[in-house]
Amino acid sequence: MRGGANPSGSSVNIAGVAHEFRRANMVTRALDPLDLTIAAGEFVAIVGPSGCGKSTLLRIVAGLLRSSAGAVEVAGKHVAGPQTEIGIVFQSPVLLDWRNVLDNVLVQIELRGMDPARYRDEALKLLAKTGLAEFVNRMPRELSGGMRQRCAIVRGLIHDPPLLLMDEPFGALDALTREQMRIDLEKLWLERRHTTLFVTHGISEAVALADRVVVMTPRPGRIDRIVEIDLPRPRNKETIASAKFSDYCEEITECFMRRGVIQY
Fold first, then answer.
1. DSSP category for residue 153
2. What is the pTM of this model?
3. Which domains does the chain have, with CATH numbers?
4. Residue range 25-73, pLDDT digits in tens
5. Which end of the chain has fewer surrounding CB within 10 Å, N or C?
């Protein structure tokens, strides 16, 4: 079932959203008008070539960028500015060098004017679930890239956001670390069912994580196809090795071949 049982996230409705970047006399059409509805508790991945407007769309949903046309609603409310209740994870973890792992997670709570002491136990639980139990007092410089990104994900989840936006969060990681991060993220999502919008370049990564994969065209970005992923969860090694998984990846690959994004 889309979003799983007992979803705790917010629905998202993207209606006719388009965007142009204007620089002096130059206009770059990043997004053509597109429509997308995401159910509460659903995990949706957006996959597409560089420059197709994936990150632009994410920033519009977050309220960090005003669209040139169209509108976004989160939990039925119009997005008119930066959304303070959501969680965001970027490709770079953006940790504070002078704070240890635990304090980097709790900075999210401090910035919201809440009591960090009340969230300390929850932070420790989340850090343990992502393999950082032994590193809570380490400084960012003492961590690997994967560890820093795990810390950033926990920071994005610590306030229990109804919507989690992830912009290529595993893009800078090596293949083995990236796969473990994918496994850890799915486990967390299965426990909490936050609505998740996940931007990636990775076709297999999108299929492994998502309930639906939104396939984007080259710039100006439009929705080429939405692929419903009917695979059991958790997506274990048998699922990843299955013919059905390969068929989904092939379907998405063919979309990019048809557009000339992938050429053999």
1. H
2. 0.91
3. 12-85+161-258 (3.40.50.300)
4. 888 899 999 999 999 999 999 999 998 999 999 999 999 999 999 999 9
5. C
